[in-house]
Amino acid sequence: MTTFAIVDLETTGNAASKGDRIIEIGVVLMQLNGEVIQEFSSLVYPERDVPPFITSLTGIHEDDLLDAPLFSEVTDEVYHLMKDSYIVAHNIEFDLGFLNEEFKRCGYPPLHNPIIDTVEMARILLPGSASFKLGQLSEQLGLGHDQPHRALSDARVTSDLLNYLLHKLNQLPERTLEHLLKVEGKLKSEWRPFIRKSIENNRYEQTSPYPFDLWHGIPVKRIPQEEVVSNPPLPPFKKWVEKAYKHTDGLKKLIHNYEIRQGQEKMTEMVFEALSEQNHAIIEAETGTGKSMAYLLAALYYSIVNNERLLVTTHTNSLQKQLLEKEIPALEELFGRPIRAVLYKGRNHYISLVHFSYELEQSYQDNYDIALTKAMILVWLTETTTGDIDEIQLPSNGKQFWHKVSADQSKKTVELEEGKESYYHWAEKEADSADLIITNHALFCMDLISSEQRLPAYDRVIVDEAHHLEAVSSRYFGIQLNYKELQRQLTQFAEMFQKRNYSKIPLSPSVVTELERAQFSVDEAKEELNHLSRYLFQRIKSHKKKDKTKSDVGRIQFVLDGKEVGFRSTANEMCHRFLASIKKLAIAMEKIHDQLQLADQLNEDYRIPILVSRLSSQIELTKSIRDQLVDYFDMSDSNEVKWIEIEGEGATNAVYLFKEPLNVSEILRARLFNQKRSVVLTSATLSTDASFDYIRKVLGLEGNVEAVEASLPSPYDFGRQVKVMVPNDFPNIKASPEEYVEAISEAIYSVATITKGRMLVLFTSYDMLRKTYHLLKEFIDPEEFMVFAQGVSTGSRDRLKKNFQAFDQSILLGTSSFWEGVDIPGDDLSCLMIVRLPFQPPHDPVQSMRDQALKKEQGNPFMERSLPHAIIRFKQGFGRLIRSSTDRGVVFICDQRLMEAKYGKYFLSSIPDVPVSYRSTRELVDEIDEWL
Question: Which positions bind ATP (predicted)?
């Protein structure tokens, strides 16, 4: 009978090699049938201090360890408990590394038993999990976890997790298990015997409860047949919308604790009127209005009654998720039939099973990350009905592998998958019959600018989070290229010319010659790209300081303008040498492509069409690279902004090239507002100084383009729920930047002491955020406050938010993306601190060039662009604090310009009417204490 020794350790830190020691050990001995036969647990005296963070995490104090045995006193028992078993841990390298270090210290040989890492196993068998941390997995699976970060409790939960995962393994289809055997050898965990046992079980009894289909030799979850939906007659709109909002069997019945909100019904009526009368509309709906529910009611009614598909585009994925998973399902009963809403994405999001099947056959040459990626995808395919890779989190190198197997590899010239055996075609089919297509601003803008249709046809669109439309369209109407991505593409090209790809395919000598020529052209292109990147990097780094600025992520920026003729001329020449290599490569690929097409007619080898489709895709890519770079260093077009960014401390060829149009308003007017029958722009922040003039101007809603407009106030009682506080004693940031950071840090600590943490601090600069974080860490005891910082603490925005909410007394420092789209309702957030008014950096390349253009037109860049942009950003930041009618808190703004500059009043007039205190920091802290 197989035995597992499931182990968990608590330690003084992460590195045994640097002297960190074990402070607690827990071992659970379990048999394959799940029966626990023995447990062991002990505190361990570490012979060194226990850091406060570890005490805060585990609850183990130094006093608890004074009478604990040394590890040498428990070594013999632990060693003999584990030596004949599979060793299992949640992150095996950590636990086994520490144990073997201690065994070595005590004169015992290291253990080299077969191992299972439940992190790796969970990544493969639960690929859709949001997190693979033990606590989150136990919560997700309902395993129960009495004492997180205590060794025996963690070991018990790991044993429950192992049981769950082995059961899940048994439920997989036999063919999936056989494919897993192809990659198992490259993984950490030695689970071949368990895969083989599952295959055996599968043969003699159908263990899988799920229906599967076989597509291209790979088991996939059966996609349910689309229901035929009939449209029951709906009453006239006015009568129907009144029922939805005011009757007991309307929204009150469908949504728990639904409250009628001022402005929500009015917004529904306005959106419906705009859609029906083919008008454009600008609707600002402040926090709490319920704008997404309001426009969904109007859009769905219009779509169903008129049998016309509508488009909704958002900036953030979280809003798309909210629409699809929460709000649209809640509304179905009002329409008397299922709502057909589809999330639509580009080809590169969907897997091509033909290409994935091909790559599975090449598994002998995989590294660890690729093997892990393949294993994750194999299991995910038994669960997904969309084939959309955003459903799982691939390892970093797995994203490179994804480029080889996405539906982007098979398009236009060579279609390898059709109809029911292609997720992308399935998505297109669903979109064709949808009431509502939901997409993001990126794909929306690509569709507007591209000659190739990226979205299904539509005439009416609702643009939510519309304050982002200018920035996103500017980015997608321009170009973004970087050295690392170009090198990745060239490496992927080179893989195509490996002779092993063509083994057993009868090739003429001329094709073999072209393969060698293409490989030479790739090497040449890489070399030329290296020369160009190194030249750009070194010239920009050595440039005078006044010509360079820093981006918000710390990259050095250099704007290309009419000056520096010699620099541009040399760069242009080097760029064209690179493009000449790319052209030679494209010619060689076209010859190979044509020869393979001929071979395909004479041979029935499944690999040939795959190679042809990849070559076709790559030829297209070489054309795209040439189109984007051919005139990059040419300054003849004055309507474009071009700049280069380099990593100041990075590799000497980490170079990024950007180009954006100086003015997107004309493009949007021509491609969007003049083409579509109705465009509804909505957001919580569209107006400045009670006017929509700014948003109209930047988005092209001027001249002969008409649009109705409305501003719907928030239903919250901000006067009662919020106080704004501005300290009058902060040092001058320009004269004393270091003192300013000290003042920020002191203010954060003083206010956090009153609010018991529960504090979000918004920065406009990563540099200042980092300095503040490191200063706070010097004097804040982790047992008092946990401090998390974007870009410093590990994890995504959502992960940082969850960590912030998980601790009772925590402080979260954020910049850029934290200014909006982050909901921390209720008691989790009591204070929002805004460090500086959110003006764009004056030297931002696009901003500075647009300012110059405005000056030439006798305009005022500050009043017409910088100030309105900052006000909209400020309103977004302010909106983080109050997310419900019961929230209450303080907005602490550390920028005296709000009270002393002439333009400060515009910021204050843009937010609801709330009490404002302008006093010393000490007095404000006392006021917060009294008020809260």
Answer: 285-292
